[in-house]
Amino acid sequence: xxxxxxxxxSLAPLLxxxxxxxxxxxxKTASGIFLPESSVKELNxxxxxxxxxxxxxx
Length: 58
Hints:
Number of domains: 1
InterPro entries: Chaperonin_GroES, Chaperonin_GroES_sf, Chaprnonin_Cpn10_CS, GroES-like_sf
Largest sheet: 2 strands, antiparallel
Keywords: Chaperone
Family: Belongs to the GroES chaperonin family.
Protein name: 10 kDa heat shock protein, mitochondrial
Distance between the termini: 41 Å
Radius of gyration: 17 Å
Strand order of the largest sheet: 1-2
Number of strands: 2
Pfam families: Cpn10
Strand content: 15-25%
Helix content: 10-25%
């Protein structure tokens, strides 16, 4: 998995694109209780890995 992360980080987005890595939802609480899949909501969170240089002027 480490090599795939390194190869993804070497990608450079073009124009105004952003490369984002999704964050997985926690399947266990801080106290150690496992959560069923039905109670875990889909997260809309991620980590920004790279940002393009911006859109070209028209």
